[in-house]
Design goal:
The chain is an alpha+beta fold. It folds into two domains: about 80 residues; about 100 residues, no CATH class. About 55% of the residues lie in helices and about 15% in strands. It has a five-stranded mixed sheet with strand order 1-2-3-4-5, covered by helices on one side. β1 and β2 form a beta hairpin. The two termini are about 20 Å apart.
Length: about 190
Protein backbone atom coordinates (compact mmCIF):
# COMPACT_ATOMS: atom_id res chain seq x y z
CA UNK A 1 0.00 0.00 0.00
CA UNK A 2 1.28 3.47 -0.76
CA UNK A 3 2.81 5.59 1.96
CA UNK A 4 0.76 8.75 2.43
CA UNK A 5 1.36 11.99 4.20
CA UNK A 6 -1.12 13.28 6.75
CA UNK A 7 -2.36 15.79 4.18
CA UNK A 8 -3.04 13.01 1.66
CA UNK A 9 -4.92 10.99 4.27
CA UNK A 10 -7.06 14.02 5.12
CA UNK A 11 -7.76 14.58 1.42
CA UNK A 12 -8.81 10.94 1.01
CA UNK A 13 -11.12 11.10 4.02
CA UNK A 14 -12.79 14.34 2.85
CA UNK A 15 -13.01 13.32 -0.78
CA UNK A 16 -14.69 9.98 -0.03
CA UNK A 17 -17.67 11.98 1.26
CA UNK A 18 -17.57 14.74 -1.37
CA UNK A 19 -17.42 12.41 -4.36
CA UNK A 20 -20.77 10.91 -3.31
CA UNK A 21 -22.39 14.30 -4.04
CA UNK A 22 -20.86 14.94 -7.46
CA UNK A 23 -23.39 17.40 -8.90
CA UNK A 24 -23.62 19.41 -5.70
CA UNK A 25 -19.82 19.75 -5.71
CA UNK A 26 -19.83 20.78 -9.38
CA UNK A 27 -22.60 23.35 -8.79
CA UNK A 28 -21.03 24.85 -5.67
CA UNK A 29 -17.43 24.97 -6.89
CA UNK A 30 -18.32 25.89 -10.46
CA UNK A 31 -21.35 28.15 -10.39
CA UNK A 32 -21.43 29.54 -6.86
CA UNK A 33 -17.74 29.86 -5.91
CA UNK A 34 -16.36 30.58 -9.38
CA UNK A 35 -19.09 31.74 -11.80
CA UNK A 36 -21.10 34.04 -9.52
CA UNK A 37 -18.17 36.13 -8.22
CA UNK A 38 -16.74 36.39 -11.73
CA UNK A 39 -20.13 37.50 -13.10
CA UNK A 40 -20.51 40.21 -10.45
CA UNK A 41 -16.95 41.53 -10.89
CA UNK A 42 -17.26 41.67 -14.70
CA UNK A 43 -20.71 43.23 -14.48
CA UNK A 44 -19.38 45.95 -12.18
CA UNK A 45 -16.46 46.55 -14.53
CA UNK A 46 -18.81 46.85 -17.55
CA UNK A 47 -21.02 49.31 -15.64
CA UNK A 48 -17.91 51.32 -14.64
CA UNK A 49 -18.74 50.81 -10.95
CA UNK A 50 -21.58 53.37 -11.20
CA UNK A 51 -24.91 52.67 -9.54
CA UNK A 52 -26.89 54.60 -12.17
CA UNK A 53 -25.44 52.30 -14.92
CA UNK A 54 -26.66 49.13 -13.22
CA UNK A 55 -29.50 47.31 -14.95
CA UNK A 56 -31.00 44.32 -13.17
CA UNK A 57 -31.77 42.50 -16.41
CA UNK A 58 -28.13 42.75 -17.51
CA UNK A 59 -26.96 41.55 -14.10
CA UNK A 60 -29.26 38.50 -14.33
CA UNK A 61 -27.93 37.69 -17.81
CA UNK A 62 -24.33 37.87 -16.51
CA UNK A 63 -25.20 35.63 -13.56
CA UNK A 64 -26.98 33.00 -15.68
CA UNK A 65 -24.24 32.90 -18.34
CA UNK A 66 -21.39 32.67 -15.85
CA UNK A 67 -23.25 30.18 -13.65
CA UNK A 68 -23.71 27.87 -16.63
CA UNK A 69 -20.10 28.40 -17.71
CA UNK A 70 -19.01 27.77 -14.13
CA UNK A 71 -20.48 24.27 -14.34
CA UNK A 72 -17.73 23.41 -16.84
CA UNK A 73 -15.14 24.75 -14.42
CA UNK A 74 -16.75 22.78 -11.56
CA UNK A 75 -16.72 19.58 -13.63
CA UNK A 76 -13.02 20.07 -14.38
CA UNK A 77 -12.28 20.67 -10.69
CA UNK A 78 -14.24 17.55 -9.73
CA UNK A 79 -12.47 15.38 -12.32
CA UNK A 80 -9.06 16.69 -11.25
CA UNK A 81 -9.70 15.93 -7.57
CA UNK A 82 -11.26 12.56 -8.39
CA UNK A 83 -8.26 11.55 -10.51
CA UNK A 84 -5.95 12.40 -7.60
CA UNK A 85 -8.17 10.33 -5.30
CA UNK A 86 -8.15 7.38 -7.69
CA UNK A 87 -4.38 7.51 -8.08
CA UNK A 88 -3.92 7.54 -4.29
CA UNK A 89 -6.26 4.59 -3.81
CA UNK A 90 -5.05 2.61 -6.81
CA UNK A 91 -3.76 -0.80 -5.84
CA UNK A 92 -2.52 -1.93 -9.25
CA UNK A 93 0.87 -2.86 -7.83
CA UNK A 94 -0.79 -5.12 -5.26
CA UNK A 95 -2.92 -6.80 -7.94
CA UNK A 96 0.21 -7.45 -10.01
CA UNK A 97 1.91 -8.85 -6.89
CA UNK A 98 -0.99 -11.21 -6.19
CA UNK A 99 -0.80 -12.47 -9.78
CA UNK A 100 2.94 -13.11 -9.35
CA UNK A 101 2.36 -14.99 -6.11
CA UNK A 102 -0.39 -17.10 -7.67
CA UNK A 103 2.04 -17.98 -10.47
CA UNK A 104 4.58 -19.14 -7.88
CA UNK A 105 6.93 -16.19 -8.39
CA UNK A 106 8.55 -14.02 -5.74
CA UNK A 107 7.15 -10.51 -5.25
CA UNK A 108 9.13 -7.58 -3.82
CA UNK A 109 6.93 -4.96 -2.18
CA UNK A 110 8.54 -2.10 -0.26
CA UNK A 111 10.70 -3.83 2.41
CA UNK A 112 9.11 -7.24 1.91
CA UNK A 113 10.06 -10.20 -0.22
CA UNK A 114 7.03 -12.48 -0.47
CA UNK A 115 6.94 -15.97 -1.88
CA UNK A 116 4.03 -18.34 -2.07
CA UNK A 117 5.63 -21.54 -0.81
CA UNK A 118 4.49 -25.13 -0.67
CA UNK A 119 1.40 -26.34 1.21
CA UNK A 120 -0.36 -22.95 1.09
CA UNK A 121 2.49 -21.27 2.97
CA UNK A 122 3.26 -17.63 2.38
CA UNK A 123 6.87 -16.79 3.22
CA UNK A 124 7.51 -13.15 4.04
CA UNK A 125 11.03 -11.88 4.67
CA UNK A 126 12.81 -8.59 4.98
CA UNK A 127 14.52 -7.10 1.95
CA UNK A 128 16.48 -4.40 3.75
CA UNK A 129 19.10 -5.25 6.34
CA UNK A 130 19.65 -3.13 9.44
CA UNK A 131 22.63 -4.93 10.90
CA UNK A 132 25.73 -6.92 9.98
CA UNK A 133 26.34 -10.56 10.80
CA UNK A 134 26.98 -10.91 14.53
CA UNK A 135 25.59 -7.43 15.24
CA UNK A 136 22.07 -8.72 15.79
CA UNK A 137 21.10 -8.06 19.39
CA UNK A 138 17.69 -9.27 20.62
CA UNK A 139 16.43 -5.67 20.75
CA UNK A 140 17.49 -5.00 17.14
CA UNK A 141 15.97 -8.27 16.00
CA UNK A 142 12.66 -7.42 17.69
CA UNK A 143 12.66 -3.94 16.13
CA UNK A 144 13.35 -5.42 12.71
CA UNK A 145 10.67 -8.08 13.15
CA UNK A 146 8.12 -5.47 14.29
CA UNK A 147 8.86 -3.24 11.28
CA UNK A 148 8.48 -6.10 8.83
CA UNK A 149 5.31 -7.25 10.58
CA UNK A 150 3.91 -3.70 10.42
CA UNK A 151 4.69 -3.54 6.68
CA UNK A 152 2.90 -6.85 6.14
CA UNK A 153 -0.11 -5.79 8.24
CA UNK A 154 -0.35 -2.53 6.27
CA UNK A 155 -0.32 -4.60 3.08
CA UNK A 156 -3.17 -6.69 4.48
CA UNK A 157 -5.30 -3.54 4.71
CA UNK A 158 -5.88 -4.09 0.99
CA UNK A 159 -8.99 -6.24 0.61
CA UNK A 160 -7.66 -8.20 -2.37
CA UNK A 161 -4.43 -9.11 -0.60
CA UNK A 162 -6.28 -10.02 2.59
CA UNK A 163 -8.56 -12.32 0.61
CA UNK A 164 -5.49 -13.89 -1.03
CA UNK A 165 -3.83 -14.59 2.35
CA UNK A 166 -6.98 -15.99 3.97
CA UNK A 167 -6.39 -19.65 4.76
CA UNK A 168 -2.65 -19.44 4.19
CA UNK A 169 -0.04 -19.98 6.86
CA UNK A 170 2.16 -16.86 6.91
CA UNK A 171 5.77 -17.42 7.94
CA UNK A 172 7.70 -14.26 8.73
CA UNK A 173 11.49 -14.55 8.41
CA UNK A 174 14.22 -12.06 9.33
CA UNK A 175 17.64 -12.36 7.70
CA UNK A 176 20.89 -10.46 8.14
CA UNK A 177 23.05 -9.41 5.21
CA UNK A 178 25.49 -12.32 5.45
CA UNK A 179 23.69 -14.23 2.72
CA UNK A 180 22.93 -17.10 5.08
CA UNK A 181 19.98 -19.32 4.20
CA UNK A 182 19.14 -19.66 7.90
CA UNK A 183 16.87 -16.87 9.19
CA UNK A 184 17.66 -15.08 12.45
CA UNK A 185 13.96 -15.12 13.35
CA UNK A 186 11.24 -17.32 11.92
CA UNK A 187 7.68 -17.00 13.26
CA UNK A 188 4.30 -18.10 12.06
CA UNK A 189 1.79 -15.29 12.27
Amino acid sequence: MKEMSQKSEQFLHRWEERRKKKWLYIFLHGSVYFGLPLAIILFLMVSDFKVESVRVSALLIFIVVFALGGLIHGLRQYNLADNIYLSLTSNDDILIGIEKLQAGETWNHENLVIHSGNNDNLEVRNELFWFEEGDASPAKLNDCFNMVLADFQRLQNDKGFKDFTTGKKVILKIFDNSGSAVPLIEKII
